[in-house]
Write a structure and sequence with these properties.
The protein is an all-alpha fold. The chain folds into 2 domains: 76 residues, no CATH class; 223 residues, MetI-like fold, CATH 1.10.3720.10. Helices cover 78% and strands 0% of the residues. Helix 6 packs across helix 10, helix 6 runs antiparallel to helix 12 and helix 8 crosses helix 10.
Length: 318
Amino acid sequence: MLIAIIRRFALSLLTLLALAVFIFVATEIMPGDAVDVILSSDEIANMPPERLIQMKHDLGLDRPASERLGNFLLNAVQGDFGKTIISKAPVTSIIAYPMRNTLSLAILVLLIAIPLAIAVGVASAFWHRKFVDHVISTVVIIGYSIPEFVIGTFMVILFAVIFPWFPATITVDTRGPLFELLSASVLPIATIVIGSVAYLGRLLRVGMIEALSTDYVERLRLTGVSELRIVFNHALPAAVIPCITAMALFAAALVSGIVVVEQVFSFPGIGQELIRGVVRREVHIVQAISLCSAMIVVTFNLLADLSILFLDPRTRSS
């Protein structure tokens, strides 16, 4: 058990190191640099080459890639992502509040979506191949197939234009109170919840159908155990274990992948900050956000592996 935990921690660290190197290389090959944003094309054309070289030297753009990679890894371990190239502001202070907002939004979505997904998956499996199952499956497939930006646009038209119940865009400041921000984010939350419930519900439905069709469950039925007890005490735990890894990866992807929804509703999250960093060629901001997203994915995957180790004795023995 202890060896398995240590092995998974070591593998997670190696994965994170590989991702950090990949992120650095990916940002290095981005076209242009901060000088292209600071100066116009005419200014660059009329500027003496010596002045342009000196400017890139002052911004640290002429250092060897290996040196920049080493500094990036060393500083990242210490939680220091440097300063922005243009404004010289600490990167950590720039991404802290957007990351707080995105994490809070994702956590709230998961707290709503996971119970709903369990209810949808259990109900669909319990009434498998019956009218209820057909209705739920149809609604879930529609919700899973429609892109989030389409759902978000429909939400805005219906609940902000036709029925002006909620704001179409978020006007709360990035550093504003978290409760005020989330209370104004009803439409973004509903948009993400629809897709989340559709995905997780379909995933759990398959596991529940397989669990309810096992010989073990049939023996429980023959011994007179009630159907509800079979579903919640035996089938549901057996169905959740295989889905834990997929749910953890989905949760991690939710934190790092709701850029589209943030753009539709102008939510002051990490997605908008990432887009601004790419547009301004702020390599340090792009690297910091990408690495934080990678850390979230690796952490969720590690937690899923450890959860399976504790819940399923077969994985410990193997």
